[in-house]
Design brief:
It contains nine helices and 14 strands. By secondary structure, the protein is of the alpha/beta class. The protein has two domains: about 200 residues, Rossmann fold, CATH 3.40.50.170; about 100 residues, Formyl transferase, C-terminal domain (Methionyl-tRNA Fmet Formyltransferase, Chain A, domain 2). The termini are far apart.
Length: about 300
């Protein structure tokens, strides 16, 4: 008899794991739980969460509880699952939920480092060269449960948050299947986390993406990578937000925010507290994303136009 599994997830990161569970054909997905739809299109219509869209495509039973710990206990208990799996679900599980069945979580970091809801973004912003995925046992603490399985990966020199998250979502799905076979085969080993080596980082907000040109170029470069595609790093251009989608480290020095080059051949090169940065893909307020060289074909940027956002 197939093991009964409830899957809880919400964003794109969780979709490959759900698809993998169905594709292997070894488990019965008795329910999928996603957060309520919140995103809207340009006409103000609610858009389904990526996990809801996936569940509907795969014809899986779906729940969307506003508050899982109040609305979800009875319905999930009735399903009598053998295991529950979470992947970026977005709500903390109460003890009542945890008592229904064991819970495994797919987390996008090498625990105990980078606990919290934005591990991939912060790992890049902090300049890490290694990231990974951990399959862990969920308990009441935030990402504090024992780790059953993990897989490390190198972070590309210019890899963005969005690119790395997509890569980790696929790796997480693959490693989840490996972990489940060990778990149901009685071969799982859970290793408690060393809390003394732990780190926690909260969700980012738009203020976290503000560029300070007095910082070293490498630090700003990592901020740009770690906030692409959201919330997107930004400076100020004539006192308006000037988004920086991509950048490159380059030679040069000067007063922070000093424009060292601004032409359609060299691009837009700005001095930082240490070194310089070329802002290779940018966006003016109300404009479209474009290469710096394309922007400079139709616009002249002079000293004083560009400054730090903090």
């Amino acid at each position: 008899m197939k093991k009964r599994i409830v899957f809880l997830g919400t964003p794109d990161f969780a979709v490959p794991s759900l698809e993998a569970l169905v594709a292997v054909g070894e488990y019965e997905i008795v329910a999928v739980v996603s957060q309520p739809d919140r995103a809207k299109d340009r006409k103000g219509r609610l858009l389904p969460t990526p996990v809801r869209a996936c569940a509907e495509k795969l014809s899986l039973p779906l729940f969307q509880f506003e508050r899982l710990k109040k609305e979800g206990v009875a319905p999930l208990r009735e399903l009598n699952p053998d295991l529950m799996i979470t992947a970026a679900y977005g709500q903390l599980l109460s003890q009542e939920i945890l008592d229904i069945a064991p819970v495994l979580n797919v987390h996008a970091s090498l625990l105990p480092a980078y606990r919290g809801a934005a591990p991939v973004q912060w790992a890049i912003i902090q300049g890490e060269q290694i990231s990974g995925v951990s399959i862990m046992q969920t308990e009441l603490g935030l990402d504090t449960g024992a780790v059953m399985h993990s897989k490390s990966v190198e972070i590309g020199e210019s890899e963005t948050y969005g690119e790395l998250l997509t890569r980790l979502s696929v790796i997480g799905a693959e490693e989840l299947i490996v972990a489940l076979r060990a778990y149901f085969g009685g071969e799982a080993t859970f290793v408690p986390q060393d809390d003394e080596k732990s780190s926690y980082f909260p969700l980012l907000n738009k203020a976290d993406a503000a560029i300070d040109f007095s910082l070293p170029a490498r630090q700003i470069f990592n901020l740009v990578r770690g906030t692409n595609p959201w919330p997107c790093a930004y400076a100020l251009y004539q006192d308006q937000p000037f988004k920086v989608w991509r950048a490159e480290l380059c030679e040069g020095s000067g007063t922070p925010a000093q424009i060292l080059r601004a032409d359609e051949k060299s691009g837009l090169i700005v001095a930082c507290g240490e070194g310089a940065l070329r802002l290779t893909e940018v966006q003016l307020p109300g404009g479209k994303r474009m290469k710096d060289t394309d922007l400079l074909r139709g616009r002249k940027i002079v000293q004083g136009d560009l400054r730090s956002a903090r």
